[in-house]
Fold each of these.
Amino acid sequence: MLFAALITWSLGAVDPAAAVLVGRRTSLSAADAQVLSQTISTHLVSAKVPIKLDADAARSSLARLGLKDASACNGRKACVKELGRQLAAAFVISLSLSEVGRDRSIALELLRVEDGVVLETEALILAPGATVTADQLASFSTRVLTQFGLGDRPVVEAPPPVKVPEPVVRAEPPPVIIAPLPPPPPKSHVSSFVLGGAGVVALGVATGLLVSGLNGRAEAYRTAEVDGVQRSPYAASEVQRRAAAGGVQLGIAGGLAAAGLALGTAAVITW
């Protein structure tokens, strides 16, 4: 009892009253956040919580001091503590307001400005279109009054604050732009012309050799009638030579013809 009385006396010495600040705002407009924070301030005042500056008054005071909006602290305790010091408030009730989908999430923290210790916390989820009620804040208000020495329970330190999950915004991947491929270069037909020309030349030469070889063999075996008997005008060795020469020409002609046909086929394939 003596310990509680001493704490009550020390709290009274530092003016146990709080300033209400929006310490964090996520996916919620500044106007909506101010309306919601002022509604919370009104409920706290109705519950007899000593409020030095409600949300509207705290916002105006910060503006007059040329300080940034409290939501720029983004929930950082040191930043909220410094704003409370600038407002000459012994305590700050810091609000974290966020909108996840269609639901609204509210986190309240009672922070002692002297040392930045969080004494009480509360977390609420509002359904779409709903507003915060005094009943939802009743438990938090009672615990704040106890911390201020105005309640029936002894003063206790609050557990670590509950972290309210922030909405995860997934960035859309950048569109994949596929550059059109350049048209293929026009195909060259030079090789086809060369192969075709070589094939024609080979066939021409082969034709000449064929005619020459046939004529040579025909001449080798030519006979004439002498004294009523068909005789060759050439000696036997000459006949063999002429026949052999004609055979060689016919063989070369066949090879060149085959080569000419092959070159022509290659020219068609490579066209």
Note: The chain is about 45% helix and 15% strand.
Amino acid sequence: MVTVRLFALLALLVASALTMSCTAENSSNDVVDLPESAQSSSEPAGGSIPTSTTPGVALSPEELAAVASAPSISLVEAKIDSIRLRVKPGNFFRYRLTQRTSSTQDSVVAVTTGTHVYHIRVKSIRPDGSVEVGMQFDSITLGLEARKVDTREVVSQSSYNSADTANFRDVRNINYSALIGEEVTVIISPQGEAIQVSDVGAIVNKIVAAFPDKNRMTPQVKSYITEQVKTSMFTTFIAQQFVPYPQGTVSAKGTWSRKQETPIGTLFTVMTDTDYKITGVKKVDNHLIATVEASVTGSMKLGAPPPDATSKLVLNRSKITGSSEAVLDVTTGMTIRKVNRLSQDVTATTSAIDMPDSRVLSQKQDIIFTVELLP
């Protein structure tokens, strides 16, 4: 089942293509060192908004419940000329992200599911408008079932629940258990992009301590694990949560576009073209609530393999299509609900290192990510 696991990893990483955004075309998600002179501010992140709203005031549970039935207003009346993060230190947001992936590879159909509950605590606002937050995973549940297409025979099945003591303490689940309860500092740009992830040392140390072959835990392998934790569990989750907001103003029609090449860890680069449009606006007390729809097309390319790789992978063909619908609080720039749908068609050739034999793999995947703000 190595092949199934390989493509499951590929699905998780590529899924962020729908929402992952860089500040400019061909830019990367490498850590950005901010100036030491940057000082914290108690003011909300910048950008003009209608005077009828109050920046930095998060939706109350009652206001959150009222969003679905709130009255609609026109885009002209809303006067939304920009969308960006406008939060204040002390703001607290709790989210649930659910994932369902259906994959068909050769003669096997695999369905993976996952639910991650995490929270974001706003620590400070920097002079450039970027936001320093503490992000922490509170619970994780995962499931995998793979069946043969013709006989429906189960060929692989597994599950994980961080609330289950046996699951949590099983060293085979350390990649998930190590995340629980560890707050990591993330710097988020005004446009909703994770531009710096730090403080993952506690998580990585837990993973390293459970590594079965200590002789293979070289500095290069530890560095690789560190980057994968930063990317796959923090940068990617921020990308799934936020709509990439425009660098400048929103057009009179409520539209903007993004074209980017996004490194996903060290393994892949996803190239996407995405169009966004505000399709509806509501008002809840002093909060403007916007619905933003998006469509994406793209492809991907492979990067260098990890230092301990025992097989080679050559990407022959890839196609990505997707859409998303997000409901967001324009007042704070925070997501209320977002559904990302992604389909990918991939053909690759895999072989063991230094071995002539190879195998051509084809896989089609349908992935749905749902992000919800919890009361």
Note: The first strand starts at residue 72 and ends at 73.
Amino acid sequence: MNTKQKISSFLGCPVECLLIFVVLVLVGTMGSSVRAQDLSVSIQEDESEDMGLGGEEEEVPFLDARPVPQIQWYFPISRPSPKKNRIRVIVSGRVEGPAKVHLGADRIPVIIGRRAANAPPRALLDTQLPLETDRSGTFEIVMDAPQSNIQLPLRIVTLDEQKEGTFQLNLVIRRDRVELRGQDNLVHAPAHQKRFEAWFGTGFNYLRYSQDTEFWNPAFETFTGPSFFAKGRARVWRDFSALLEVKMSPGATQSSESLDVTQGSYQWWIYSGEVLYMPASLQGRLLRNPGPWGIRVGAQHHIMPFLRREEDVRFSIVDAQVTMATLGFQHEEELFNNIDFEIFMRYQHPITKGDVFTISPIFAFDGSLGLIYNFRSGLRLGAFWYGQWHEYNYTDKRFDPSPDVNGFVQGRQSLFFSNAEIRLGYAFD
């Protein structure tokens, strides 16, 4: 038996069958490779027709091993685009020092629906790369892109060439929003914050009031509305803003078994003027994302209720005017896309004696919490809570416990004030 016969006997078929099978496998493999390549080319060609993609490849510099610079990425911003069926997207950030920003690849991966493409830079970028940051390390990249998912590759090198890093930004671009995914520490870009804000609001307020003296202990609670609020904010210089606020909260109480009131209605007015210092470099996370922290300092003038004894056990609410110095903090951060969180708290210290009584403060502070939805038009809608807690030792200038003696009454006064409001605002330049 020759060799060919031995192989045929071992395989159970003629050698010619084996050769035919091998040839068929090789042809099928080559055909699959060609079809996959044709499919990939077809996707890119189809996408090129839709987006106007195509162009020459650019050389990508070789990356050597150096420390990666620290980058503070900002929330991307969308604007109307001058190009048809495109959205203008502004991607920005702040390097730890002056640097040069390069494109990290010769093509930009783009996914539109189920189709993928590799776009040349000129098809998407309106900013010429590479670019140098400003002195503070801040940079902006402007794109005109369709509704899509874009993976923007960047290479950032400090000007002293001591640090270098590559970054892949995953941008989700839609008509109503732009998201930068995969970055947890996004903050608002200071350069794109509006210079002016105007707010108006209304709501309801609760007041718990009490006095404690040697001779009487009157107290009452009231829940009344509507309250009114107005605020203006203007960025006057760099990180400094001016704040002006007016609040009016009505209230009323009636006679009861423990309190005989002859005049029980009031309006608590608060006029505030402050300066807010909020540097972009002072960032921190309170809830979800880092945001700026700032210091508020200024003054408030209160026309507030004071329960005064008229005769025997009869009381009436009169207006007492007090001016206070204020010092506190404010924090702002973006919780979700277009939803901001705001909090502030202030210490209040009386700096005038008052026209009805003199006061010696034990403690006094106020604060606020708010959630704000930002519309693209600049309109803002917010839900806010505002509260105050005042504890004073006071001297009433007018009456003594004895109806026949015109002297002074000393005691302690406590006010707890809580206000819930809906506010409508508008931000503009």
Note: The longest helix spans residues 15-51.
